[in-house]
Please model this.
Amino acid sequence: MEASILHERGHTQQAVTLLEQAIALDPKATEPYYRLGLIYADMKDYEKAITYLQKVVEINPRYTNAYLNLGSAFGYLKQYDVALRCFLKALSLDTRNPKTYYNLGLTYWVLRDGKKAGLFLSKARQLCIEQKDTVLLEKIDKLYQK
Model:
């Protein structure tokens, strides 16, 4: 998508404008809302990110990645109970996504629930190995070294 390229190249306002135009043309399309949510999360404006990502799941309640990003945004705002609900919703939609287990594990880690954190991180690690996701596997292994 052109807006993603614009944002990656530092033309964030142009990307936002393009996505807002796309929404004006088709208010039921999820992708422009999703991309805006990612842009605002990248800018650390988590409240705006949440607004756009919530619109995505309102339109399409089965959009797993929107729930993952919503959970992350709520986590950055230290709203861990809401973050957990988002991650658990993502898990109910896709039980094979290692990022979901990873995010659940991290959230439980922050909440100092080592048992649950360990269970979810272990499952994330297993899925990373099966799916050859070396980037996420490296992140998990670094956590275990701490």
Notes: The longest helix spans residues 114-131. The chain has nine helices and no strands.
